[in-house]
Every structure is written in structure tokens, then in C-alpha cells.
Write a structure and sequence with these properties.
With 203 residues, this protein is mostly helical. The protein is built from ten helices and no strands. Helix 3 crosses helix 5, helix 4 crosses helix 5 and helix 7 crosses helix 9. The longest helix has 23 residues. 35% of the residues are buried.
């Protein structure tokens, strides 16, 4: 252990999970501190609503605490926790279908690299383009809300959270090939929905 650092700062996730399972509240607090920002970001992108994201994040850690006894290290702790978070986000999405959705983090899809939904398109630049940029973000938000939930989950985990297809497969309970297929279909659907935007930005 690095001198002067608490065990919760230096131990692996799996070690902290085992200690949490044995009743060490400080160990679970260490996991919360380590993952709360990542879980919030994940569920915000899944749910598209800031207040929902806060609620889902809290519920994720409550469920993780109650269910920590079921974690036996067959998978990474991160995978186990992400699975809980995604399931909670999907439950909220299904319960809130009729509510207006304001998606968070969708700008990360714009110009996000070769594998991202908007690969090949350049973001608008310059102060004179701020209004156009705002309109673009609104249209991306609208497009994301039209994605099938399972496809959206695969896209968020792969393209935004950076999980491998194998780890995303563990989170979603499907095969790596299915993850790749869903993420690919989500990208194609986004490109279709945003074709006018992409064409306009290329001119």
C-alpha cells in the first residue's frame, strides 16, 4: 500500500467489493466515491434527464449495497455495477415514455471518432455558428430519443462509455456479436435521422 493513503483508495474494486460483502461500510463508500460520477454519466446518457439520472444513480448504489452478497467475482465489479445501472435506467425509460426527454451528453456523439455515430462529420465552429450548433444539438437529442432502448444501451456502452464489446455483452446479458450489431444499427439509424444535418454541415 502506498504510505499515507487509505486502503479504500488503493485497493482493487474486487477487493473493496469483498470487504463490502463482509460488512465494511468504508469499503462500499470507497466504491461509491470511485464510481458515482461514471454511473451518473452512464445513466444520464441512457435516461436523457438530469433529475432522473440523479435518482437512478442513487437507486443503483442502493441496489448494489443490498445485493453485494451476490457478487462473487465471476466478472469485474465494474461490469456488475454497470449491469445494475443499465437495468435501472431502462426501467425508468419504460416508465417515462410519455414524458419529454432532454438528452445529456449527446454532443459526445458529434465528431466522436471512427466508431461514433457521427463519424465523418465536422462540428460547427465559430461564434457565428452558436445558434446553428444549438439547433444541431436539439436535433441530435431528438434523434437519440427515437432509438430502440436496447440499441441505445449498446451505443452508450460502446461509443460513449468505451466498454469493449465483450464487457458490454456481460452488462447487457447478450453476446459480443449482438452488442456490435445493435451499436452498428444504432449508428446507422442516427445517421439516417440526422442525414439533413450532416449534409448541411458538409456544405
Amino acid at each position: 500500500m502506498i504510505q499515507g493513503l487509505a486502503p479504500e483508495l488503493t485497493a482493487s474494486d474486487e477487493t473493496l467489493a469483498v470487504r463490502s460483502r463482509d460488512g465494511a461500510s468504508s469499503a462500499f463508500a470507497g466504491l461509491v466515491s470511485r464510481y458515482q460520477e461514471r454511473i451518473y454519466r452512464l445513466v444520464a446518457r441512457m435516461s436523457g434527464n438530469a433529475s432522473d439520472a440523479e435518482e437512478i444513480t442513487q437507486e443503483t448504489f442502493l441496489r448494489a449495497l443490498r445485493g453485494i452478497g451476490s457478487f462473487h467475482g465471476e466478472s469485474l465489479f465494474r461490469t456488475w455495477l454497470y449491469r445494475i445501472a443499465v437495468n435501472q435506467a431502462l426501467m425508468h425509460l419504460r416508465a417515462a415514455r410519455r414524458r419529454p426527454v432532454q438528452s445529456l451528453g449527446v454532443v459526445a456523439l458529434w465528431g466522436g471518432g471512427e466508431g461514433s455515430a457521427m463519424a465523418g462529420a465536422e462540428p460547427l465552429e465559430g461564434a457565428d455558428d452558436l445558434v446553428d450548433q444549438k439547433n444541431l444539438v436539439e436535433r441530435v437529442r431528438g434523434a437519440l430519443t427515437q432509438l430502440d432502448e436496447s440499441h441505445r444501451a449498446a451505443l452508450v456502452l460502446r461509443d460513449l462509455e468505451g466498454l469493449s464489446s465483450e464487457e458490454a455483452a456481460e452488462v447487457l446479458g447478450i453476446s459480443p456479436d449482438a452488442v456490435r450489431q445493435r451499436a452498428h444499427r444504432a449508428r446507422l439509424r442516427l445517421r439516417e435521422l440526422l442525414r439533413e444535418v450532416v449534409d448541411a454541415s458538409a456544405r
